[in-house]
From TrEMBL:
It comes from Cutaneotrichosporon oleaginosum. The lineage of its organism: Eukaryota, Fungi, Dikarya, Basidiomycota, Agaricomycotina. InterPro entries: AB_hydrolase_3 (IPR013094), AB_hydrolase_fold (IPR029058), GDXG_lipolytic_enzyme (IPR050300). This is Lipase/ esterase. It comes from the Eukaryota. It holds the Pfam family Abhydrolase_3. The keyword Secreted does not apply. Transmembrane segments: none annotated. Keywords: Hydrolase. GO terms for molecular function: hydrolase activity.
Length: 336
């Protein structure tokens, strides 16, 4: 029987064994978004399988007009808690307020509030709609955070994949506009929406990696940025920003996957940040592909990934460091 999306045999020696087992059992015959005829109902399609269950957490949804946010509060709840704004992944096409609750509840366990953003999605809302919503969220937290028990003087931003693209752009604009952001967390970021194999080796070396191959990434790009001239806008491609925009960004924690199409452009953005004088903590998971961060229900390495994010935030906020047992009760299944 043929397999719809088999793993490339050349990748198997490098690919995490738990990932191989889960992929072959659950994902190999699942169509990727660009292999389906488009319908708006697909916005709700889960971009990643294998997530852990969220931790118990008090939440509040806030309607901001054309989009909404969800606030995850730490326990015990208190007034004036620091804030971490999180932008979900999904290629600017997939995702919702429920997309990455597992990670948001675990970041809240650090002792900060997490603001997840249900920004508008392409293709119905192409660039710059999602980026506008990302920035509007920061402005809302700064101007109205106290109404929700948030300390707007202590804000970090972060995101996953396309969400990390939004976070990087927000961080750059905050520096330009004098809005204080303490730090940014960029997890497998999209940094250059003009990227291709001519400039970035991973676009050739990792073009067939699971989770995000070149065809899927180019499809996402076409939905969010149908006008090619928008792709060089630094808001869409933070790597292409002027030096002063990059220099105005806060210190960063960047996580890259060695088997990711976006690996090289992520490294290039790390270099830009460092050259501009920013402090950057870089973590690379050589044996994982693009979407692995969100597979913390089945991958031990994904749990390490998320623990690292939580502990960077804890360190920046002066909170105690956590252990895996603080975030996860049940072990991951072993590799077959």
């Amino acid at each position: 029987m043929s397999v719809l999306n088999p793993l490339d045999p050349a990748l198997l020696p490098r690919l995490n064994k738990q990932y191989i087992a889960f992929y072959n059992a659950n994902l190999a015959n699942t169509p990727m978004i660009h292999q389906l005829p488009w319908h708006p109902s697909l916005h709700a399609m889960k971009s990643v399988a294998g997530s852990a269950a969220p931790l118990p957490c008090q939440t509040k949804d806030v309607d901001l007009g054309h989009f909404a946010i969800r606030i995850f509060y730490p326990s015990p709840a208190s007034e004036d808690v620091p804030v971490f704004i999180w932008y979900h992944g999904g290629g600017m096409v997939l995702g919702s307020l429920d997309a990455e609750n597992a990670l948001c509840t675990r970041i809240a366990a650090v002792g900060c509030a997490v603001v997840a953003v249900d920004y508008r999605l392409a293709p119905e809302h192409p660039f710059p709609a999602g980026a506008d919503d990302a920035w509007a969220t920061l402005r809302y937290v700064v101007e109205h955070g106290s109404e929700h028990g948030l300390d707007a003087s202590r804000i970090g931003v972060g995101g996953f994949s396309s969400g990390a693209n939004l976070a990087a752009a927000v961080a750059q604009r905050a520096g330009r506009d004098g809005v204080p952001i303490a730090f940014q967390v960029l997890s497998v970021p999209v940094t250059d929406n003009t990227a291709g194999p001519d400039r970035f080796p991973s676009w050739e070396e990792n073009r067939n990696c699971p989770g995000l191959n070149d065809g899927k990434m180019l499809w996402y790009r076409d939905q969010y940025l149908p006008n090619p001239s928008d792709r060089t806008d630094p808001v869409a491609s933070p790597l292409l920003a002027p030096d002063e925009w990059v220099a105005g960004s806060p210190d960063a924690y960047v996580v890259l996957a060695g088997l990711d199409l976006l690996y090289s452009e992520g490294l290039a953005y790390v270099d830009r940040l460092k050259e501009a004088g920013n402090t950057v903590d870089l973590v690379v998971f050589d044996d994982l592909p693009h979407l692995a961060m969100a597979m913390d229900g089945v991958l031990d390495r994904a749990r390490e990934w998320n623990l690292g994010i939580c502990n960077f935030i804890a360190m920046r906020l002066g909170r105690p460091q956590l252990t895996l047992s603080d975030l996860y009760e049940e072990p991951c299944p072993p590799a077959l």
